[in-house]
Design goal:
The protein is mostly helical and about 160 residues long. The chain has 5 helices and no strands. α2 packs across α3 and α3 runs antiparallel to α4.
Length: about 160
């Protein structure tokens, strides 16, 4: 009987230790994964993104100039939205249903516009490669969101 109790206690301690280690890893991952363009100006961000795309898609000079314009416009808009978000967070007001709908609608409109522009600029092969890269980014983003949501849910249970 004593042996059974000791075994159950040992298994319980191992389970708790494993959970704590796993939580520590997730926290560490989140801290090491800051946005890679966070500290750059919109112009620097657009330049870096364009160069990455040039390497990945083998862009011509003319394509680079057009993609640079699109990336610069997107980077400036993201910077502006980030500043607006900081201001709203200070007030700690959550957006209303209408505001969320408007934001989501605008985001999707931007994505549609960017997709059309990239399709216009890139060759068929380049565009296919571009789409594969975008799909991969979306999948990675979804995986990270699921991990973060799971971590938040676990944290709430303990409280």
């Amino acid at each position: 009987m004593k042996k059974i109790i000791l075994i159950v206690m040992a298994l319980g301690v191992m389970q708790i230790t494993a959970q704590e280690q796993q939580k520590g890893i997730h926290k560490k991952d989140r801290q090491e994964r800051p946005h890679k363009f966070k500290d750059f100006t919109p112009e620097e961000t657009a330049t870096l993104q364009t160069k990455e795309m040039t390497l990945r898609l083998d862009l011509t000079e003319a394509q680079q100039k057009e993609v640079q314009k699109i990336n610069l416009a997107n980077a400036k808009e993201r910077s502006l939205r980030r500043e607006e978000h900081k201001i709203k967070n200070r007030n700690s007001e959550k957006p209303s249903k209408e505001e969320r709908f408007k934001m989501m609608n605008e985001r999707l409109d931007r994505q549609i516009y960017n997709k059309k522009e990239m399709k216009r600029i890139l060759s068929k092969e380049q565009y296919e490669k571009f789409e594969k890269g975008q799909n991969l980014k979306r999948k990675k983003s979804q995986v990270h969101k699921r991990k973060d949501n799971g971590q938040k849910k676990q944290g709430r249970k303990k409280s």
